[in-house]
Amino acid sequence: MKYRRVGKSGIKVSELGLGSWLTYGTASEQEAADACIRKAFECGINFFDTANAYNRGAGEEAIGSALKPYSRSSYVLSTKVFFPMGEGPNDRGLSRKHIMEQCEASLKRLGVNYIDIYFCHRYDEQTPTDETLRALDDLITQGKVLYAGVSEWSAAQITEATGISKRLNLHPLISNQPIYNMFERYIEDEVLKVSEEEGIGQIVFSPLAQGILTGKYKPGVQLPKNSRAANDNVNGVINSYLKENVLECVQKLDGVAQQLGISLARLSLAWILRNPGVSSALIGASRPEQIEENVKAVQVELHTDVIEEIEQILKKVKDFAPLR
């Protein structure tokens, strides 16, 4: 495993982290969570990400339980706040009230004394940004949070926040957590540039495009049984990838991977890690073998000719419109 600093901060995370969205949270999945985290540690992964909104707290409980056997100093743990956690008018968003209450609730569910990186899960149009940033700063001062970050914030929103932090002499944001994969590349337009200027590292999610970039979905072929795409109850995001032009593109990318003697998943992760603005890519796993395969990506170096070949293939899906 290799490790990178998160932005200009001093904290280092594994180039691949383990996320828990749509993966852990029910009693039947706790055994899988334990096995995957055990394998992650064996492979050198030290970064684990969750959120209070994942199964309304059950995701945090599963991660917290699986991490209990390990020394708290041996791993970096992040969670998030923003989405509704109740029916009341203050049970959502980034108000001081919601942030403070949810931080306490997350600490209890995770079974830890502090959160390494606390992310604002989305931008809150209804709360003044300075109120949000002051609340995060107070949590850092109290030692309940070590670093603060944001998720899916635009370049303008990041610029606004960093300006406020400097003016008020608050602890700086160290990370943004956006979606980033071969098909969803909006951060390359402005977010990466602004983040680099402000010392913010990207911890990206969905690097394998909901599993599309594993190559298991083929154009004109019925969806594999028990796959994420075949389960209508999981989420609708994957449907935006299930288009003939996208799947045909995936087949060509798989051909590139085969020429290199690696899996498409490894190729896709190495493509993300080629970007110095990325601190870590979050993988999901329901089986330890998936982690074992994916971590091999950190050893893959893509030469210029391979990257150019990939770009030529991706040009055919430049009009990709995600369902987000």
Sum up the structure in keywords:
TIM Barrel, 37% helix, two-stranded antiparallel ribbon, 324 residues
Mean pLDDT: 92
Radius of gyration: 19 Å
CATH superfamily: NADP-dependent oxidoreductase domain
CATH architecture grouping: Alpha-Beta Barrel
The DSSP helix count reads 10
| Low-confidence residue ranges | none
Number of distinct beta strands: 10
Could you give a short account of the major beta sheet? 8 strands, parallel, barrel
Kindly report the CATH topology.
TIM Barrel
Shape: globular
Assign the structural class, choosing from mainly alpha, mainly beta, alpha/beta, alpha+beta, or little secondary structure: alpha/beta
The ordered string of helix (H) and strand (E) elements is EEEHEHEHEHEHEHEHHEHH
CATH class: Alpha Beta
* Lateral arrangement of strands in the main beta sheet: 3-4-5-6-7-8-9-10
- For the termini, the CA-CA separation is 32 Å
Write structural notes for this entry.
The chain is an alpha/beta fold. The chain has one domain: TIM Barrel (Alpha-Beta Barrel), CATH 3.20.20. Helix content is 37%, strand content 14%. The chain has ten helices and ten strands. It has an eight-stranded parallel beta barrel, surrounded by five helices. Strand 8, helix 6 and strand 9 form a beta-alpha-beta unit. Helix 1 runs parallel beside helix 9, helix 3 runs parallel beside helix 4 and helix 7 packs antiparallel against helix 10. The longest helix has 17 residues. The protein starts with a strand and ends in a 10-residue tail after the last helix. The model has no long low-confidence stretch (mean pLDDT 92).
